[in-house]
Amino acid sequence: MSDNTVTDLRATPSHEETTDGKLVRQPPRNEEVEAALLGAILRNNRAYERIADVLRPEYFFAPEHQKIYTLIKRMIDAGQEARPTTLQHMVDADEALKSVGGSEYLYELAANVVTVINATDYANTIADLYLKRELIQLGEDTVNDAYDMDFDETAERQIERVEHRLYNLATTGEIDRGVTTLKEAAYNALVHAEEAFKRDSHVVGVTSGFRDIDNMLGGLHPSDLIILAARPAMGKTALVTTIAYNAAKAYRQFEDETGKVIEEGGKVLFFSLEMSADQLAGRILSGEAKVSGDKIRRGEIDQEEFTQIARAAQELAKAPLFIDDTPGLSITGMRQRSRRVKRQHGLHMIIVDYLQLLSGPPEKKNDNRVQEVSEITRGLKMLAKELEVPVIALSQLSRQVENREDKRPQLADLRESGSIEQDADVVSFIYRPEYYLQREHPEMRPNEPQEKYLERVQNHEQRLAESRNVAEYIIAKQRHGPVGTVELFFDNDYARFGDLDRHHGGDGF
In this structure, are residues 9 and 122 in contact, taking their beta carbons and an 8 Å threshold? Predict the structure, then answer.
């Protein structure tokens, strides 16, 4: 080890001359910095507290330094002091460490340290050089994979895998945000409360466009993962499409009296894994023009309806709603596309229709679907936090709903993975009693009096009439607010939801 009291933070030159005079590239590293950091920790264990979140054993280049740091980490994490004296017996028992001097090397590391002030700088340098070595390895692997003539492995798939590795590398060793004082947290909460107070809607996040849903949720909040689940034919795609368009249509930017830029509504990215972009746009067009989607598809419209459609299309063109209908998309590909849209256009909300059509990360192919769904929901939550936008993901429900007398969904009905409930900030369901009541016309029971049967029929028809065009939006879990049920208006002709006002007979459209 050098006797200098100042350790050069620069990496060892990347070229070294071999015996035959040729220059050979060497991986970037700085073993003097590694030794200086280990010595600083051995001299004062408090230095470890400053770098523990930054540094892992594999970040060190020298194998002996990896082993020594592992022993130090194990000792300190166990609440014991890591000194040359306490580590001596473990180091001397390791044949690989004996070759570099064993316990004598530990004493040398500690003796050559002048100060522990630079421990954080040393750790950052070691981590940076590790990332550069990993980038070099990633580049080499990418080249080798591209040369490999495996026709089942498409270039697009390779790009997704490389992008995922790059993302993992970019987030490797991220320093924890650290503690926040109550004073800072209270100030931030006050800012959010002030923003909500100044807005007429009192919504902090992105609006859903539905009065009662916004009242229950306070808007769709950044970094939240919101699961919307239902059985087929309940209208979950119709609801989330309406939410997407409502938010995009409401988007505007303005300055308050202090000059601060305020944004309402939001720019929305819609991942439509089941329907094409044209089909999705057709649904929105049908709802806005109030012309049946079936009539539009078959061309059975008159001049007045065509005028309504054209006018609605002009309104749709103004909304910042982006649709990605790439089939078979992976969570990695979704992250890549979302970052691109945010960089190029700005982004305030992401919608995924639907979760079960996504695939997990390319390098984590697993036959266990439950585990894969867990990876997907975890990835969606990470995406929401990374881009600081709400992510709404649709999900299927298991068939056990159909076997119950009360068909209202429950948290236990979430299909394939308990991690959906665990990772989500909000879990909500759509339930339309009209759908089931239409299929449950009372049959006359054996030996049942005619009057009793007619009474049951009358009750059924009354329930059917009360449930007509009514949908229940059930909030079964909300991490930061109340749970409960909101009633919405549903128009099956236009596949469109709206606010329900039973007292005035309006639908909010």
Answer: yes
